[in-house]
């Protein structure tokens, strides 16, 4: 089963990424991003793509330039996640055949991202906008446009976000923080998956 959850492994190192990735896949989270401000992020993305290519979707977060898009594509990444809405990055991502998930906070950014070809929208930081803000924007966004809540969305409030129109979630520190053991990551991932699967 594929769930609309992106695990954000900020700070993960290449030496641990395969064990962490396997724990997430086993728990049922099949989309993993390695932010580019992590140690040797391209090495981690390449390792995930080569080892688990048939089991999930892997790529980069905190992608800010078209050059970084090319680097991620060459490493075997399939998904580009950004904290901002940069049409040039979105177009480069789509031209490379990758999924594009730019960060947006306003209707203007949402529509600019969609016009540039974004696969979906990353509402970030979700804690500043809240489910009420998303609900207001959903009234004008295309109904088939997936919006993921990131930064302020977690097991404790999935239901409120989903009711507001969130199609999925990006989960960072609730799943992984640098220094966590693989067992801790696995337990955190199971908690997130259980909460998502319990949604009506």
From TrEMBL:
Keywords: Carbohydrate metabolism, Lyase
Protein name as it appears in the record: 2-keto-3-deoxy-phosphogalactonate aldolase
Classification via PANTHER family: 2-DEHYDRO-3-DEOXY-6-PHOSPHOGALACTONATE ALDOLASE-RELATED (PTHR30246:SF1), 2-KETO-3-DEOXY-6-PHOSPHOGLUCONATE ALDOLASE (PTHR30246)
Pathway(s) annotated for this protein in UniProt: Carbohydrate acid metabolism
Example GO molecular function: lyase activity
Listed SUPFAM superfamilies: Aldolase
Superkingdom per UniProt: Bacteria
Alphabetized Pfam families for the sequence: Aldolase
Subunit structure: Homotrimer.
InterPro entries: Aldlse_KDPG_KHG, Aldolase_TIM
Family, similarity comment: Belongs to the KHG/KDPG aldolase family.
């Amino acid at each position: 089963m594929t769930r609309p959850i992106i695990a954000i492994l900020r700070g993960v190192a290449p030496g641990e990424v395969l064990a962490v990735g396997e724990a997430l896949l086993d728990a049922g989270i099949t989309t993993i991003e390695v932010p580019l401000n992590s140690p040797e992020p391209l090495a981690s993305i390449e390792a995930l793509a080569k080892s688990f290519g048939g089991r999930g979707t892997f790529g980069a977060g905190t992608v800010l330039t078209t050059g970084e898009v090319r680097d991620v594509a060459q490493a075997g990444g399939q998904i580009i996640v950004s904290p901002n809405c940069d049409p040039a990055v979105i177009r480069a991502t789509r031209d490379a055949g990758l999924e594009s998930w730019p960060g947006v906070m306003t209707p203007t950014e949402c529509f600019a991202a969609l016009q540039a070809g974004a696969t979906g929208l990353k509402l970030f930081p979700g804690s500043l906008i809240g489910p009420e803000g998303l609900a207001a924007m959903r009234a004008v966004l295309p109904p088939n446009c997936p919006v993921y809540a990131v930064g302020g969305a977690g097991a404790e409030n999935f239901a409120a976000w989903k009711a507001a129109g969130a199609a999925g979630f990006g989960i960072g520190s609730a799943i992984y923080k640098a220094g966590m053991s693989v067992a801790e990551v696995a337990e955190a991932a199971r908690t997130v998956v259980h909460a998502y699967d319990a949604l009506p």
